[in-house]
Write a structure and sequence with these properties.
This protein is an alpha+beta fold. It has an 8-stranded mixed beta sheet, sandwiched between helices. Strand 4 and strand 5 form a beta hairpin. Helix 1 crosses helix 3. It is globular, with a radius of gyration of 16 Å.
Amino acid sequence: MSNAWAPPTLRTERLVIRPFSVADLESVHGYVRGHDPALYGSWLGGATSSEVTRYLADTVARYGRPPRCDLGIEMDGRLVGGVAFRQTWISPPTFEVGWVLRPDASGQGITREAVRALLGHLFSTFPDMARAEARVRLSDASGIRMLERLGFVREGLLRYGAGEAGDAGFYGLLRLDWAS
């Protein structure tokens, strides 16, 4: 029995947004070495080599079973980050999006380009999708700016919503406000 759903591969002018593979293990380990686990530990699977290995194995094993998907961001043949989506509400259909980027790749608009491509894919693939959501640490000014440039609106405050990293802003984007 085959499953008709497969994780997408998306292309932009500069990026390939694709499913992770086991060959990406060293690059994903690089995220852990480049980030404070208190800020990104849950996204990256943890702080130790064995936790990151488990994260990547679990991610690859989940492919083919929506509505959750982590994808790698590749630029110039190098894995520089990741984006993800997870269905958070069934009715109305709502997806949360997230991202992580290697520190040495920041400041180039990569995250905005990747999240824009992911949102375009989600809104076109899931015609009943009513909205997208994201949470971002209040101290992450560039993440907040990126969401606002994409049309997200701050809808609330999640106290301790970023765990040890503190409070998070909760952002939403309605389908009718989406301008691809």
